[in-house]
């Protein structure tokens, strides 16, 4: 069939369309990843609340976590969780006037940075003077692992884990911990 033969003059125009299609495909993939990142916020918040409650219970049983320090730490962690849930509702769950996904993703990473700093600062507030190594490991590693597994975002994980780990390490070095 002569009509089915390719036209030698057309490939140059088709290459531009194929390149544009490839870039649109990449953009759609990035948008899907951001939408999934923002959609996983409630699960990450549940993980943070559960690990926070366990950390408070364990630290109180070990002789730390006074009422003032425990309340202040829990209130600040809950403030970060409420901000993340608000961002989720504003950027993902509500259909009217949605926040753009790129902005919601960067705001979520900023909130994870704040919450990680608050989490790590809790080592100064609620840990006992001589904590068990398992409690320190639990306090430093379990929430970061939970955030990593639920959000599945490397930059979000780093935003939470870096300040929380650094502050727990700082509390270890500055305190009278035997570790």
Oligomer: single chain
Name the structural class.
Answer: mainly alpha
* N-to-C CA distance: 81 Å
Q: What is the overall pLDDT average?
A: 81
- Weakly predicted, low-confidence segments: none
- Over the alpha carbons, how many angstroms does the gyration radius reach? 23 Å
Q: Major β-sheet, in short?
A: none
Q: Total helix count? A: 6
Which word captures the global form?
elongated
Report on this model:
- By secondary structure, the protein is mainly α.
- The protein contains six helices and no strands.
- Helix 3 (67-93) runs antiparallel to helix 4, helix 4 packs parallel to helix 6 and helix 5 packs antiparallel against helix 6.
- It is elongated.
- The termini are far apart.
Task: Supply database-style keywords.
179 residues; mainly alpha
Short summary:
With 179 residues, this protein is mostly helical. The chain has 6 helices and no strands.
SSE layout and pairings?
Blueprint: H1 11-39, H2 41-61, H3 67-93, H4 101-126, H5 133-151, H6 154-174
Helix pairs in contact: 1-4, 2-3, 2-5, 3-4, 4-6, 5-6
């Amino acid at each position: 069939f002569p009509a089915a033969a390719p036209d030698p003059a057309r490939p140059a125009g088709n290459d531009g369309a194929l390149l544009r299609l490839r870039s649109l495909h990449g953009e759609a993939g990035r948008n899907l990843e951001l939408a999934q990142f923002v959609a996983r916020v409630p699960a990450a918040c549940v993980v943070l609340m559960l690990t926070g409650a366990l950390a408070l219970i364990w630290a109180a049983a070990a002789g730390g976590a006074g009422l003032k320090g425990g309340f202040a730490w829990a209130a600040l962690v809950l403030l970060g969780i409420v901000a993340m849930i608000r961002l989720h509702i504003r950027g993902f769950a509500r259909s009217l006037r949605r926040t753009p996904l790129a902005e919601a993703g960067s705001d979520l990473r900023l909130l994870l940075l704040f919450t990680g700093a608050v989490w790590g600062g809790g080592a100064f507030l609620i840990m006992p003077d001589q904590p068990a190594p398992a409690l320190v490991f639990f306090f430093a590693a379990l929430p970061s692992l939970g955030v990593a597994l639920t959000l599945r975002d490397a930059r979000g994980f780093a935003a939470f884990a870096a300040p929380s780990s650094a502050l727990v390490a700082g509390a270890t070095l500055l305190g009278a911990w035997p570790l």
